[in-house]
Amino acid sequence: MAEPTAPRFYDRARVAGYTDGVFAIAATLLVLDLTTTAIGEPTGDAELWAALGAMWPSFLSFCVSFVLLSGLWVIHLGQFRSIARVDLPLLWLNSIRLLFVVLIPFTTSLVSQYSDFYAGRMLLPINFFFAALLGFASWAWAAARSGHLLADDARANARAENAGGLAAVLCGFVAMIISPWVGSWAFVAYALNGPLTVLLKRRGAARVARAPSAPR
Predict the structure, then answer these.
(1) What is the per-residue pLDDT across 37-54, written as a single tens digit (0 to 9) for each?
(2) How far apart are CA 141 and CA 143, in angstroms?
(3) Is 215 a domain residue?
(4) Structural domain tally of the chain?
């Protein structure tokens, strides 16, 4: 009888480094929407300031996307602080998350240019929702099977540690739903991410504390 094939793992440091690099490139590309906006040929300071002021939708979209992208990166850092091994399913879940991450500069440009259309208002919230959802799915897989991909000291608090990812998914869902009516104001929903993360961590810690201890 053939022996079962041992699971194959990948270099965790290389996966984390590649992910950091993609986040960094996506954050840098966000500024391209500002550099490609035509300011015209102002003949004085007043006209230049007026032209820059007219770019406020692009500046707002840039700032919102940069802050939220940074939030997704912080969640990624927390995850890979506790993940000790990377298998093929986690590798692909992480890669699909990065697909949505690299799309963020494009969908950000749509907000400032086509905010009069539903698609222009909705695609960026949808983009962030799926990026957050894939981040949550990555951790859920790593924490499955009693934390089979986690470091030993991270397994006990696996549910509580994913509170930030779950909170981002919930806030992203709310933003996606209301974006057709309120546009960029939908991202105000992410202001609830911090309090919701704290609440979910407390509930997760309380659930762990109530769980019966394993027999020795």
Answers:
(1) 667 777 788 888 888 888
(2) 5
(3) no
(4) 1
Residue 138 has a CB neighbour count (10 Å cut-off) of 29
124 three-class SS: helix
Q: Which among 60, 59, 66, 63 has a CA at the least distance from the CA of 26?
A: 66
Using a 10 angstrom Cβ sphere, with 0-12 exposed, 13-18 middle and 19 or more buried, the burial of residue 180 is: middle
Total-model pTM? 0.85
Q: Distance between CA 176 and CA 131 in Å, rounded?
A: 12
Output the six-digit token pair for 86: 């990377």
Domain presence at residue 2? no
| Res 35: pLDDT | 80
Evaluate whether residue 6 is within a structural domain. Answer: no
Q: Which residue is it, tokens 């259309």? A: 117
Strand-pairing partners, residue 10, are 86
Range of the domain at 185: 12-36+43-210
Residue 21: Cβ-neighbour burial (10 angstroms; 0-12, 13-18, 19+): exposed
What pLDDT, on the 0 to 100 scale, is given for residue 216?
43
Q: Which is nearest to 84 in space by CA: 153, 135, 132, 136?
A: 153
Does some domain include residue 216?
no
Question: Chunked in runs of 10, what are the mean pLDDT values of the chain (216 residues)?
Answer: 68 94 95 77 84 83 92 90 94 97 93 85 94 94 90 79 86 94 89 88 69 52
